[in-house]
Write a structure and sequence with these properties.
Structural class: alpha+beta
Shape: globular
Largest sheet: 4 strands, antiparallel
Number of helices: 7
Distance between the termini: 6 Å
CATH topology of the largest domain: Jelly Rolls
Strand order of the largest sheet: 1-8-3-6
CATH architecture of the largest domain: Sandwich
Strand content: 15-25%
Number of domains: 2
CATH superfamily of the largest domain: Jelly Rolls
Number of strands: 11
Radius of gyration: 18 Å
CATH class of the largest domain: Mainly Beta
Order of helices and strands: HEEEEEEEEHHHEHHEEH
Helix content: 25-40%
Length: about 220
Amino acid sequence: MGMRDDALIPPSSLSFDIKAFLESGGVSGKVVKRRGGHVVYAQGDPCDTVIYIQTGGVKLRVLSHAGKEAIVAMLGPGDFFGEGALAGQPTRMATAVTTEASALLLIEKQAMSRLLHEQHALSDRFLAYVLARNIRVEADLVDQLFNSSEKRLARTLLLLARYGKQDIPHHVLPKISQEMLAEMVGTTRSRVNFFMNKFKRLGFIEYNGGLKINDSLLTIVLHD
């Protein structure tokens, strides 16, 4: 099943100046710096802040009642998470963990809610961000239901490399294991290893002090 290019454009392409966003309403957020592997919040914790990623990255993972864990999102600079607090969500639905050293801006939900009500132009932009994120979630679901593991892996790599963001021309991935990729894609590590070797052989990816994702990898996603 084919996929449009715009389904791969990350919501962060709609990000805006969060500092100006807060200062315009007289609100100051708290910036915290965390090492990679730090639990920002756990599934079931009180849902009382909205968080903005200034630098670094965060993964969201969910644990089922049966004990099965899945990564549901990989986020980077310019992304928000925890916005369920604004919809009255009482507890966190996922666990948020930093994937690398990160600077996170924590905004109390009351302050964020007030800003969104008072600053209409800015609330429109935040809404556009949330809608883009929802479109991404729907595309993820379609991808999981209908596409092969090879296509899902290719799409995941492009998303992780922030495909479509103009200020990142080389698409170099942060450090990520094949085990984590397998968990995100919903396949085995051996299958991930097989496809990664294939992508490398075809010139879609390169290993040179990091994992570089070439735009040509999109042909795997678009191929019917």
